[in-house]
Amino acid sequence: MVVPLLKLQDLIEEIRRAKTQAQEREVIQKECAHIRASFRDGDPLQRHRQLAKLLYVHMLGYPAHFGQMECLKLIASPRFTDKRVGYLGAMLLLDERHDAHLLITNSIKNDLSQGIQPVQGLALCTLSTMGSAEMCRDLATEVEKLLLQPSPYVRKKAIPTAVHMIRKVPELSDIFLPPCAKLLHERHHGILLGTITLIMELCERNPAALRHFRKVVPQLVQILRMLVTTGYSTEHSISGVSDPFLQVQILRLLRILGRNHEESSETMNDLLAQVATNTDTSRNAGNAVLFETVLTIMDIRSAAGLRVLAVNILGRFLLNSDKNIRYVALTSLLRLVQSDHNAVQRHRPTVVECLRETDASLSRRALELSLALVNSSNVRAMTQELQAFLESSPLDLRADCASGILLAAERFAPTKRWHIDTILHVLITAGAHVRDDAVANLTQLIGGAQELHAYSVCRLYSALAEDISQQPLVQVAAWCIGEYGDLLLEGSCEEVEPLQVEEEEVLALLEKVLQSQMSLPATRGYALTALMKLSTRLRGDNNRIRQVVSIYGSCLDVELQQRAVEYNTLFRKYDHMRAAILEKMPLVERGGPQVDEEAKESKEAVQVSKAAAPVPTEPQASKLLDLLDLLDDTPEDAQHPPPLDPSPGGTLVHLLDLPCALPPPAPIPNLKVFEREGVQLNLSFTRPPGSPALLLVTVTTTNSSEGDVTHFICQAAVPKSFQLQLQAPSGNTVPAWGGLPITQLFRILNPNKAPLRLKLRLTYNHLGQSVQEIFEVNNLPVETWQ
């Protein structure tokens, strides 16, 4: 009994009637069996119908590879109905991974040379979809001829095919240079749009083509001017803008041609000003043209006034009700803030208003731009706005906002007191979200400002009395109370409200910190040390402090227990030395990059002068004695000791009764393992003398670009025969323009002395993009593992 074959429409209806996936699979399996049987019978009249059903099955996600050869048979058929389904099947079922796609090269070549426009269109569409590099090389000449065919239909199909060929085989670009110059004279907008796209591909992949097409910049300017000045056209106008797609594409090509070229940029300056001032911004099509105009102005060597106009356009975008347009404006202004800082500064109030947006992506972009706008002249006002935003910001933005405020305060602080107040406000508002180095920076800042010791300890004591949940704040307050508790009890600070603080209140507050469940082990360590230091600064009895310290001598936390035991020993055995050991920390001067650079230069100069000085010849024993001259401050006219007897009994080695020391190992060279857009990762290596199997790797991340690197995370992996321990990094933000780098220590134990291989994974945000890089480091110096 012959089963009647289903039509495509009947198959679709039957599949849709299936109530479960099992029923659907049953219908498709049964129909695929019928399709296979029909292919084996070889009925030419039914082949295209069966393949059409198979293509529908393929679109549903079921295997249809057995129809590949039927596609080739239909393409070779002289009937148009067969060719249409055959080419469609080739585009869906064939690609470069299947060798069968090479079998249709001759069929496509014959169809391209037939002169039948619908067949040529089918062949060109297939070639532009799945043409491999070999097919492109074989058929490039035929496509070049079709680019100049009189039929607009064929030319529209041939241009995307040429674009595909250039992407697959860039060396074919020379073939398509002459036709492009002729196609620019077309009046058909579809052909003109395709030609612009083809020229862009040629310019991006071939420097010679870029120089060639810079000659047609006046022609492109004329085409765009006609589009801008032409009236309404029902065929091409969209929302009152004449063919915005063609305008955008021309602007993109002008951006490529004018980049780093003075003459081309000057030719298009007047036109860009005309487009920027005459485009209607009430509709989205006009905004798209304006945005491309702004990008073109910023990429070429445009006049200063034109750049200001572009920034003002972006400022108007910030006032638009469409959130997408505001996001685009914030992203573009963030790119321009380094090159056109003053022009972007004019829109600072509008940018600050965007901080209050409910959309998370908009507020994040506004925060990044606001932080980039901070400078020495507006640091007070901008910090005040950012602090207000920090109080109400979402949790996922608090870390970025707090880190940005701390960095801005460190770079542009007008006074030390303002700097301290700013950091305190951040710690009080979002202490749990600050960077890891915030505590160390603030303690160093307070320690170096002697005139602000009393003010700082009063402010921190008041903040600690109100809230002990913010751990960084508690740590700084405990440190400050321990160092300057005597100033707190004196109440000598006139710049804050007078505080009448008793000794018992201070001790009770520190005990509260020690007993709180919210306190981290590190925080308890700060509080315990503060109590110990107060034992030398308070006038009363120290019995209460001794009792508290003795309690923590049996604490489960090893670090806290060790501190308590050492402090108890100090009370019992070395009480006479306690005051000297626990005296105030000396004043610390914060060294900036300039100070470090000067110290480095002076050190190098000393080394050069020492190397240039003549070295007198001395006996070996005298040289050994000079090794012990650590102070190196002996006057020149001082008498040197007489040379020792070079006999074995008189050598320094015998005097010290020590074996002859080996020379120190040669330093391991540093290694640069990563560099992208100004972000650089360097590895430095150290082998501790007493542990030959241990390698210390210091990872230093620097940033010489114009944008900060945020949320930086470096992860590492080693082979199983190694042991790897990652220490906490110094931070997660690398400021722009060579700011303070991030350092992280890797401890690698290599007991088998096997060759070392590292696999690193970097994740960070940079220039508005999220970056993730995974790579292996196989070129480590031999000294790291031998």
TrEMBL record:
<comment type="similarity">
    <text>Belongs to the adaptor complexes large subunit family.</text>
</comment>
<dbReference type="GO" id="GO:0006886">
    <property type="term" value="P:intracellular protein transport"/>
</dbReference>
<keyword id="KW-0813">Transport</keyword>
<protein>
    <recommendedName>
        <fullName>AP-1 complex subunit gamma</fullName>
    </recommendedName>
</protein>
<feature type="region of interest" description="Disordered">
    <location>
        <begin position="592"/>
        <end position="616"/>
    </location>
</feature>
<keyword id="KW-0653">Protein transport</keyword>
<feature type="domain" description="GAE">
    <location>
        <begin position="666"/>
        <end position="781"/>
    </location>
</feature>
<dbReference type="GO" id="GO:0045202">
    <property type="term" value="C:synapse"/>
</dbReference>
<dbReference type="InterPro" id="IPR008152">
    <property type="entry name" value="Clathrin_a/b/g-adaptin_app_Ig"/>
</dbReference>
<dbReference type="InterPro" id="IPR050840">
    <property type="entry name" value="Adaptor_Complx_Large_Subunit"/>
</dbReference>
<dbReference type="InterPro" id="IPR017107">
    <property type="entry name" value="AP1_complex_gsu"/>
</dbReference>
<dbReference type="InterPro" id="IPR011989">
    <property type="entry name" value="ARM-like"/>
</dbReference>
<dbReference type="GO" id="GO:0030121">
    <property type="term" value="C:AP-1 adaptor complex"/>
</dbReference>
<dbReference type="Pfam" id="PF02883">
    <property type="entry name" value="Alpha_adaptinC2"/>
</dbReference>
<dbReference type="InterPro" id="IPR013041">
    <property type="entry name" value="Clathrin_app_Ig-like_sf"/>
</dbReference>
<dbReference type="InterPro" id="IPR008153">
    <property type="entry name" value="GAE_dom"/>
</dbReference>
<dbReference type="GO" id="GO:0016192">
    <property type="term" value="P:vesicle-mediated transport"/>
</dbReference>
<keyword id="KW-0472">Membrane</keyword>
<keyword id="KW-0333">Golgi apparatus</keyword>
<keyword id="KW-0968">Cytoplasmic vesicle</keyword>
<dbReference type="Pfam" id="PF01602">
    <property type="entry name" value="Adaptin_N"/>
</dbReference>
<dbReference type="InterPro" id="IPR002553">
    <property type="entry name" value="Clathrin/coatomer_adapt-like_N"/>
</dbReference>
<dbReference type="InterPro" id="IPR016024">
    <property type="entry name" value="ARM-type_fold"/>
</dbReference>
